[in-house]
Amino acid sequence: MMRYIVVIWFCLLSMLYSCVLYAEDANAQQYQDSILKIAHAMPNTLVRLTYLRDMAYRHQYPPYNKTFSTALYEEARAQKNVTYENLGAYYLASCYDKLHDPDSLTYWVNELKKYAPEVGTYDYYLEQKAAISRALASKRQVEKAVYIAKEALKESLEHHCNNGEIASYNSLGCAYGISSRGDEALKIFQKACQRLTPQTKAALRVDILSRIIRMYSNAGQDSLKHFYLKQMDETLQEIISREPEARKNWTNFEIDCQLKYVFLFMEQGNFPVALEHMDKAKALLDSHVDIAFWLNVQLVQLQYYTRTKEYDKSIALIDEVTSVVLNHDASIFATFINYKASTQIDKGDIDGAIETRRYLIRTQDSLDNVFSANQLRQMKEIYHIDDLLLEKQKIKDTNYQRGFLFLITLLVLVLLFYLYTRYLSRKIAVAEKVTANAAMQAEADNVTKDRLQSEISHDIRTPLNVVVGFAELLTESKELTAEAKVEYGKMIQENAENLLEYVNSILELSRLESGKTQYVQEECEVMALCRQEIAIAEHTDNGRVSIRLKTDIESMAISIDKNRFSSLLSSLLIPSENDENTYNITIRIRHDKEKNMLFFKVTGTPLAKARFENKTALIRHEINAHFIHAFNGTYKVQEGASEGPLVLFSIRISNQALTE
Fold first, then answer.
1. What class of enzyme is it (predicted)?
2. Distance (Å, whole) CA 344 – CA 426
3. Among positive and negative, which fits the CA dihedral 123, 124, 129, 134?
């Protein structure tokens, strides 16, 4: 019994809706309120949701689309019906798609993404994600539009979503078309057309066909578009006959289709048939039609009058629609007025064209509320009245302008040539100076190399002669005593060892300077390492070396090559084997916190004294200096210090752990 009551109640409300439907265009707000009252009078069940769904579907055009879509979405949330929530969010996203509002559209796309796994279909989510790309493309954000379209296409293929795939191809083609990649856009639209199935939404099918026709028109291939235009027309008629109650949803597409017929027959020169389709397009104009399609009708009609040379009708039409353009889309006001001026010029009415342009200039103040400052500035540049007033002198003015531009260009080129010549002169002077310095340095290096080669040859030849000489005495003389042989052998051994040490030092320095030997950086405790080397030096020389360490640093961690640093300390503390002198060595270590450096002062070191006595010590200093410089330090030997020859060196602290 309850079921029959609900059915009867629903039928009564449907009859009431039919009555309200006739008053739709009389008062939009009253009509909306009536529909919502009918909905609230229904049971708070699936019946109310179904009714709101039908209203949202039948009214996918302003001002009703947002009202009924919002009512459906909120009712679905109240009833916790995810399926209808998903549908309501889809219709709301469609509202912002028509407004080309990428930010609001993105919000609802994110909502649809949440619903998709729950409802088991990704169609709504992916269709509207592709719509974000079209909204961005309309704002000339082409690269971002292409990226989002490709992303939506990838997701559509992953989820086997045909509607999402077609919508993604559609958006990608639009982005390519806006970026002047017409051939790529046409290929994308054709690929989408090939992917159409019986399950593809009618709106997507019609939109793809419309864009293919437009691409062929832009390319001048009118013979190829007739097939697609016929398909578009048949699809629209089939939809309208199947769903007459939702016909207003398709009015924009119907107007677009008729205008395409107008263009087709105008290109064929069949103006009577073109006029028939123009009249059909004009008959479809109503308050719910998108203003862009209304403007398209006016613009196509103006082109028709231009083709048929009906100048008076063209001018009259512009005068008729100017006020509407100002009220609804002032951004193309200048286009219409300029079209009127061009028509007057074609008609031969130059004075009328000048007056029309003056009217455009006078009206520009009222356009400040509509145009941005940049758009208005472009208008002034493009439509300045002087362009018409001086049209008779255009050739003469053009010659003056070309002459002036030529002179300016010539002066700029002369200036550039002068600046470039000065720049080259300076570079040549710098290059000559660098070359001279390099030549002087090379000459100095050659002198140094020759001197070093001479010194090395002398230092190697001296001990080698000693070794050879005493070796000959040992082998040739038969009268030598055993004591003499032992003494000669000892001298041979000492000189051979000195020679080996000298050669090894030269080889080590050579490897370091050539970069073949790399330092190993590791963290070590420098104070412990110093104390260790002091103990080794005192033990090795049996009391000939006395070493004092003066510092207020207890411990210090530095990052350095531990083995090389030990070798440096050892070279400063341990005298050579044939050196029998006694040394009192003092090591002072100071930490400069501001510079983050450790400063070492080694007084009484045998290496500083030996520096002036043999080349082995000199080379050892070079090795030490190379090591210290590699770790951003300094190394210096002072022979004239008051406390005697000393060595000063510093080490930069990279990672420190200091306890004082």
1. transferase
2. 62
3. positive
The separation between the first and the last C-alpha atoms of the chain, rounded to the nearest angstrom, is 99
Domains of the chain, CATH where assigned: 395-516 (1.10.287.130), 522-652 (3.30.565.10)
Q: What is the DSSP string of 278-305?
A: HHHHHHH--TTS-HHHHHHHHHHHHHHH
Residues 6+ apart with CB under 8 A from 238: none
Among candidates 244, 290, 285, which has minimal Cα distance to 63?
Answer: 290
Q: Which residue has the tokens 């005697």?
A: 644
β-strands 646-652, 635-638 pairing: antiparallel
Angle between helices 202-218 and 182-194 (to 10 degrees): 150
- Sign of the C-alpha dihedral, residues 63, 69, 72, 75? negative
Task: Write the DSSP symbol of residue 588.
Answer: E
> Which residues are registered as beta bridge partners of 558?
524
Beta-carbon neighbour count of residue 424 at 10 Å?
10
Tell which residue, 199, 135, 143, 208, has the closest CA to residue 173.
208
Please give the Cα distance from 177 to 181 (Å, whole number).
Answer: 5
The rounded percent of the chain whose pLDDT value lies above 70 is 80
Residues in the chain: 660
Using DSSP bridges, classify how beta strands 583-592 and 545-550 pair: parallel, antiparallel or unpaired. Answer: parallel
How many angstroms separate the CA atoms of 329 and 259, rounded? Answer: 20
* 183 three-class SS: helix
- pLDDT tens digits, one per residue of 23-40: 454 578 888 889 989 989
Which two tokens mark 192? 């989408």
Residues 6+ apart with CB under 8 A from 337: 318, 322, 356, 357, 359, 360, 363, 383
The 3-state DSSP class for residue 219 equals coil
Please report which helix (H) or strand (E) contains residue 651, including its range.
strand 646-652
- Judge contact between 651 and 560, C-beta under 8 A: yes
Q: How far does CA 305 lie from the centroid of its chain?
A: 48
**Per the structure block, which two tokens stand in for 273?**
């048939």
Mean pLDDT across the chain: 80
pLDDT in the model for residue 163: 92
402-417 tens-digit pLDDT: 888 888 988 888 888 8
Q: Between vectors from CA 253 to CA 90 and to CA 122, what angle results, nearest 5°?
A: 25
DSSP string across 257-276: HHHHHHHHHHHTT-HHHHHH
Q: Are 568 and 627 in contact (CB under 8 A)?
A: yes
**What's the pTM value of the predicted model, to 2 decimals?**
0.52
